[in-house]
What does this fold into?
Amino acid sequence: KEVAAMPDALLQQVADLLNDIEDGKRGWPRAMTIGITTCIPKGGDKEAEAEKEHEVATAEPAQTRPITNMSVITALYDAIRCKDMEGALESILPRQMHGARKGKEIHGVSLKLAMEIERAKLRSQLMVGVSVDKEKYFDTLEYELMFKIMEVMGVPAGVVRAWRALYEDLKVRY
It folds into this structure.
């Protein structure tokens, strides 16, 4: 809604900027390559989180989840290009894979598991599970491998070029 309310001239400037980045005519403006990371407490108990809000600054790193926010235009570009690639991704990704997919968001997996656990309890059935949470995953991504995979998948060269340029210049602030 907010983007649609922007003046046409400003939208055209943003489109020209993003096209120039994809065409390799310019890099990302510095302000758009800075991610601000905030650590929020892990867990789902909102009341407990509210009570411990003042403790976040001193929380152990393993008990927090880092969330990195980029500029509005960078986020807009990501949203547009991810939407553009939805169909291609659906044709190659395994049916069982969840996360960042329409109708297969990660919270859907959590809900499905919760229902299966509840069903097992009601039927007095044994249920065993393992939960693995890779710590601070953002810092461990192999970006160059990700870009190579994107190329093999047929992602347009300009999109790969733009994302490569963004991640090469990315600065994360805590």
In short: The mean pLDDT is 80. The helical segments are 8-22, 46-51, 72-92, 106-122, 143-153, 157-169. The first helix runs from residue 8 to 22.
